[in-house]
Amino acid sequence: MRFASRIILALILVLSLGLMVFSSLRESAIMDELAHIPAGYSYLNSLDYHLNPEHPPLVKMAAGLPLLFLNLNFPTDTPAWSEKVNGQWDVGYEFLYQSGNDADQIIQWARTGPMVLTLILIIFVYIWSKELMGEWWALLPSVGVALSPHFLAHGHYVTTDIGAALGIVISIYYFNRYLISPNKKSLIIAGIAFGIAQLTKFSALILIGHMLLMAIIYALIRFNKSQHEFKHAFALVFTYLRRLFLIFIIGVLVIYPLYAIGSINYSPEKQLSDTQAIIGTDFENPPLSYLADATVWLSDKPILRPYAQYSLGMLMVLKRANWGNTLYFMGDVDRTGGPGYFPIIYALKETLPMLILAGLGIIFALFGMVRALFKRTPTLREYLDTNLHEFSAMLFVSIYVLYSLTSPLNIGLRHLIPILPLIYILATGVLRKHAQKDEYKKQLRSAMVVFLFVWQGAIALTAFPHYLPYFNDLVGTDNGWRYATDSNYDWGQDLKRLATFVEENNIQKIGVNYFGGGYPPYYMGDKAVPWYSNFGNPLESGIEWMAISVNELQNSIAPTAPGFTRDIESEYRWLKNPTSPDFRVGESIFVYKLSD
């Protein structure tokens, strides 16, 4: 039985990998890859971390590692590298498209790193689920992740979201194991896992609050008030917090080596000047001003300056989160976002079977809680003794959701990816638990749960290869751009398809307003003419075709939210029917035939 379940898991992994690979081969670089790929390569090849300090290095280094085996030209002799402060976008263009390299070769090999991390995530979901519900049921959440359009999309891009999901899952898992068996070995492993999580994405800092709450709760339920004075409760809490502090210290030590690699050829003088330029005057008020001052002070200190780079990344994320991001969402263009963003995006982009699974899981979980409340059994201590993994995952999901609802940085469902595996595990576990009460109900609910995951697999196959713009059947992928863009729909993935369209239709000139990490002239030569709304109608310059990325289009023509302004010349008023293109390339590029 064990062998059979592992064979099935292996087949799931192969299928997931195949879908990611063949989807990736059809796509151009997405926006963030233009910065992340050269950054990861430079950390390992040049041992210099001055590109893209806004994100931790693990995923970027995983992407850069395969590139070390290619004979590549890296533009270290250009001002973008040697003089600019974090000239990541310029270096990206020069590295991929202007240095004599094969851009597609670089992109595809770099993406193998994130794909491997995605497969490891699927395996960890299986390992965690197996402890909760057995080997066969554990296959279901694994399928949920492996064949989710969101994991298949972001799993083959050089971005940090899948890495964050992996780091958070393993950190919570091994911290739970430490609480269950608090020995030196489990403490060290929990610390290493926490450190790995911090190397994936700065949102993993939420784990600190989660672990603090878990340690306090777990300490208090171990206290028996009938046998001890309450002062012993505080002593017990202090003991757990002291041990948690050791876990954090181990995590801080784990962070150091990857940042230290990028400090070898990053001169202290340049690191100091770069840090001062990036921080500027944006952090003048306590307590962030103290962190900013400490970051600047550390940035040229031997031994310690890798931590300055980590701290700088945190500050950059905080700055961007406070500033927000210009986006199109539900009919408006705005910068501020709002608490309704993630619930709506989740409802529209998560697959229907996983929405149903999550909904049923919540219903049965609430039913079980109410029943236990009336029966006054089990006690909280008894519950945690047998359901620690479940409680810990629910607590983290709750904290993460509350954080997301209050964050103004609303740029895509991808920011919810770290909690989706936990939701799949929790919902499946709850339904399995309730399916054991009655034989008939057991068979019925088991069949229903299996059906939901088979449905998930069918979606993965039918959505291929357009995973990034996937919207569920409530609105449909073809109409998803009417509700949200950016990383929800258009990240520049269809540029290679546009080049094929131009060639097949024998187009000699086409105006292009492109959003993404690709470079139109690289794929289309002088046929692609950069063109924007304020240039006027390209037909007047003898160009009969116009291609616009839907993200650029919506940001140009959709109504603006109150308080947000836009230049009237950027609104494509010379385009007759901007929302009704003559052709669509992939899902994200609209093409217009300007002449009759």
What is the element layout, followed by pairings?
Elements: H1 2-24, H2 33-45, H3 58-64, H4 79-82, H5 88-97, H6 103-133, H7 135-146, H8 149-154, H9 161-180, H10 184-198, H11 206-222, H12 230-261, H13 268-279, H14 288-298, H15 305-323, E1 327-329, E2 332-334, H16 341-349, H17 352-375, H18 380-406, H19 420-435, H20 439-463, H21 495-504, E3 510-513, H22 520-524, E4 528-530, E5 545-549, H23 550-557, E6 583-585, E7 589-593
Parallel strand pairs: 3-4, 3-5
Antiparallel strand pairs: 1-2, 5-7, 6-7
Helix pairs in contact: 1-6, 1-7, 2-3, 2-5, 3-6, 6-7, 6-9, 6-19, 7-19, 7-20, 9-10, 9-11, 9-18, 10-12, 11-12, 11-18, 12-15, 13-14, 13-15, 14-15, 17-19, 17-20, 18-19, 19-20
